């Protein structure tokens, strides 16, 4: 029997389904994809608690819950966001009457317990002499809640929790990151998309003296200039079409803490000028405002581009580059740290088990060998998606076998068991080169032009290496599990 009705408001179908799966065992779950649908549900159903995503089309979660408080004050309101601190949580939590703020990725058991407590609070409010119609936390209470949450985040993202091979290249990277954490200096992290740059940035923040202050994130490549300025610097009501109220920018929310600017290389020259001024003057001026505000924020930025090359070609401002690049760091791609792959895979599987309520015990040895052999162009993000898919495809809580791997990994053939390791450095380098060429040819379905472009070689140079390593008779993209081919496109 259910103990109440909970309304989930989220515009992403997968998020709706994940939340419903966790909550439906104990509660009647009602779904809405936007504010309009949510209002229709609230008008027709008795709801004890609302779980609302912060980012929705047309209106933020906090703004909608502020409206709900005025029209339907009874349900206990909760907000979910991908930020460590919601954009408006500090200024708007009291106005919206938000009971709990939940950060992504959320833990299923903690989420369920939070909703249980919220529904219990709803019934207490209804009892004669109960706790009252509204939960109104004081600023002191709010600060204690936020401080406790940051302490939990600090434990979650400490350096020791970054999974890596103790003998792999991440050891040097983490040593540099620990050095950077000890000093209030701007950090620029370079590396391929999906390699884990945000995770490293969080470790630097939570390992620093600012670790008890906010950590906020913005993907600078995802928004046009006007919206990016509003997100970062804030805006006044009426500053542009669609600015219906004052908005606090992420720089102001991060005051005292750290802001992580991902994909900084995707910003326009016009925006770069404005960001440079903020970094030089240590102050922001919201769009439409007449006065500037001082800020104290550490900046960690990241890019998958070669910014030095962009500077030379005039695509990125030199002065901004030197502002951001005070402490440069490079995060190796997953193919450069293959010893990390089994460890990361096990960590991801534990996370997926918790999210999907499964008990898959691990991977078959052959599966791990194939995971290590694959090229992983999408890095850790692609590995995460692959493991999620394998768990969904598996019918029993047994080790994940190679038959569950996706079709794109069919060419990831491991070295034969018992094969002797190359003895000399030259042999080892040639073995790595041969393997990289074979994998790339397989991923490009034998197309020499595409493979040469990906490897940074000429067609003539690649053909010479194919002949040198005798790959024509070994690599066949059409053969099962990556036996090698002699039918390359010429």
The CATH superfamily title of the largest domain: P-loop containing nucleotide triphosphate hydrolases
Number of strands: 12
Radius of gyration based on Cα positions? 26 Å
How would you classify the helix and strand content by structural class? alpha/beta
Tally of individual helices: 19
Q: Averaged pLDDT, please?
A: 79
CATH class of the largest domain: Alpha Beta
Kindly report the spatial arrangement of strands forming the biggest sheet: 2-1-3-4-5
CATH architecture of the largest domain: 3-Layer(aba) Sandwich
Strand content: 5-15%
Helix content: 40-55%
Tally of individual domains: 4
Q: What's the story with the biggest beta sheet? A: 5 strands, parallel
CATH third-level topology of the largest domain? Rossmann fold
**Uncertain regions: pLDDT < 50 for 5+ in a row?**
129-142, 415-423, 473-490
The global form is globular
Q: Determine the N-to-C terminus distance.
A: 67 Å
Protein name: Two component, sigma54 specific, transcriptional regulator, Fis family
Modified residues (4-aspartylphosphate): 53
Domain Sigma-54 factor interaction: 163-392
GO molecular function: ATP binding; sequence-specific DNA binding
Overview of the molecule:
- This protein is α/β, with parallel strands linked by helices and 490 residues long.
- The protein folds into 4 domains: 5-134, Rossmann fold (3-Layer(aba) Sandwich); 172-330, P-loop containing nucleotide triphosphate hydrolases (Rossmann fold, 3-Layer(aba) Sandwich); 335-409, Helicase, Ruva Protein, domain 3 (Orthogonal Bundle); 425-482, Arc Repressor Mutant, subunit A (Orthogonal Bundle), CATH 1.10.10.
- Helices cover 44% and strands 11% of the residues.
- It has helices spanning 13-23, 35-44, 61-71, 89-96, 108-126, 139-156, 170-181, 197-206, 225-233, 250-253, 269-281, 307-312, 318-324, 341-356, 365-373, 379-393, 425-443, 448-455, 459-468; strands at 5-9, 28-32, 49-53, 76-81, 98-103, 187-190, 215-219, 258-262, 283-284, 293-294, 298-303, 327-330.
- A hairpin with an 8-residue loop joins β9 (283-284) and β10.
- α7 (170-181) packs across α8 (197-206).
- It starts with a strand and ends in a 22-residue tail after the last helix.
- Mean pLDDT is 79; it is low at 129-142, 415-423 and 473-490.
């Amino acid at each position: 029997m259910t103990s109440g009705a909970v309304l989930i408001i989220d515009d992403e179908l997968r998020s709706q389904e994940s939340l419903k799966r966790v909550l439906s065992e104990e509660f009647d779950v009602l779904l809405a994809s936007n504010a309009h649908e949510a209002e229709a549900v609230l008008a027709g159903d008795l709801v004890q608690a609302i779980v609302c995503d912060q980012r929705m089309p047309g209106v933020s979660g906090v703004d909608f819950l502020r409206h709900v408080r005025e029209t339907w004050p009874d349900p206990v309101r909760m907000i979910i966001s991908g930020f460590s601190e919601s954009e408006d949580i500090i200024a708007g939590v009291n106005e919206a009457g938000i009971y709990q703020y939940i950060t992504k990725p959320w833990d299923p058991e903690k989420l369920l317990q939070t909703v249980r407590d919220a529904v219990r609070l709803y019934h207490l409010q209804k009892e004669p002499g109960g706790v009252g119609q509204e939960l109104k936390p004081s600023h002191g209470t709010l600060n204690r809640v936020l401080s406790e949450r940051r302490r939990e985040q600090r434990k979650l993202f400490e350096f020791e929790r970054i999974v890596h091979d103790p003998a792999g290249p991440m050891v040097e990277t983490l040593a540099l990151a620990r050095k950077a954490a000890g000093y209030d200096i701007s950090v620029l992290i370079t590396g391929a998309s999906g390699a884990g740059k945000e995770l490293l940035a969080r470790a630097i923040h939570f390992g620093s003296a600012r670790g008890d202050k906010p950590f906020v994130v913005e993907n600078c490549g995802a928004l046009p200039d006007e919206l990016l300025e509003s997100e970062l610097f804030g805006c006044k009501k009426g500053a542009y079409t669609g600015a219906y109220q004052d908005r606090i920018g992420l720089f102001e929310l991060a005051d005292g803490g750290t802001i992580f600017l991902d994909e900084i290389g995707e910003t326009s020259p016009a925006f770069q000028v404005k960001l440079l001024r903020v970094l030089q003057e240590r102050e922001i001026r919201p769009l439409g405002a007449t006065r500037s505000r001082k800020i104290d924020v550490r900046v960690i930025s990241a890019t998958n581009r070669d910014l030095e090359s962009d500077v030379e070609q005039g695509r990125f401002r030199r002065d901004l580059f030197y502002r951001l690049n005070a402490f440069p760091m490079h995060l190796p791609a997953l193919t450069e740290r293959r010893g990390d792959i089994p460890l990361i895979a096990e960590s991801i599987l534990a996370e997926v088990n918790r999210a999907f309520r499964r008990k898959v015990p691990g991977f078959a040895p052959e599966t791990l060998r194939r995971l290590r052999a694959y090229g992983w162009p999408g890095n850790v993000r692609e590995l995460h998606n692959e493991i999620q898919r394998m768990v969904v495809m598996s019918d029993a809580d047994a080790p994940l076998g190679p038959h569950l791997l996706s079709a794109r990994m069919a060419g990831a053939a491991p070295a034969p068991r018992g094969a002797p390791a190359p003895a000399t450095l030259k042999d080892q380098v040639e073995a790595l080169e041969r393997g990289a060429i074979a994998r790339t040819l397989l991923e490009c379905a034998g197309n020499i032009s595409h493979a040469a472009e990906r490897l940074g070689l000429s067609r003539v140079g690649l053909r010479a290496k194919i002949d040198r390593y005798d790959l024509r008779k070994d690599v066949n993209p059409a053969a099962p599990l990556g036996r090698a081919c002699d039918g390359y496109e010429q």
